[in-house]
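Standup notes, protein team

Yesterday: finished cleaning the Ilyodon furcidens set.
Today: Arginine--tRNA ligase, cytoplasmic structure.
Blockers: none.

Input for Arginine--tRNA ligase, cytoplasmic:
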Amino acid sequence: FQRVYDCLDIQIIERGESFYQDRMTRVVKEFEENGLVQLDEGRKIVFVPDHSIPLTVVKSDGGYTYDTSDLAALHQRLFEEKADIIIYVTDSGQSTHFQMIFAAGQMIGWYNPQVTRVEHAGFGVVLGEDKKKFKTRSGDTVRLMDLLEEGLKRSMDKLKEKERDKVRQPASLRAERFPNCC
């Protein structure tokens, strides 16, 4: 992954779920103190505006859920990282989940969407040449680095077709667009 991150000039701070464990406890407490938690068959749930299904912040066995960890991550990014733009990039199937997480963050007063941009950028499924969904576990998927290299090759071919390579050297064009690639 680091080769891809370097190519795209991305710096990643990796944090596992354990990083948010203490923060999850504090988030649940904050929702409770604001009177936003309801008990339902041993679960602690939070209803957000415009959604009939609640977030489950504590399971009946006392454990946390993705709802809790995503709320804790949102809180950490807003208050510790002081982020003013947060974009979650996941598959479109997670859209409703993130709408609810963001609605909960607004409801409790963590951020104002007029000031802080928090959004989900969903993507669909990636299909192979056979028009079937890629299955990452099968190992038959195209590697992102291969896609980047193919995109770079195609863009260079297009520049040559338009004779832009006569104005600028391909190496300078490549360095400008992907300074850390290939």
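Follow-up from PR in the comments: The mean pLDDT is 86.
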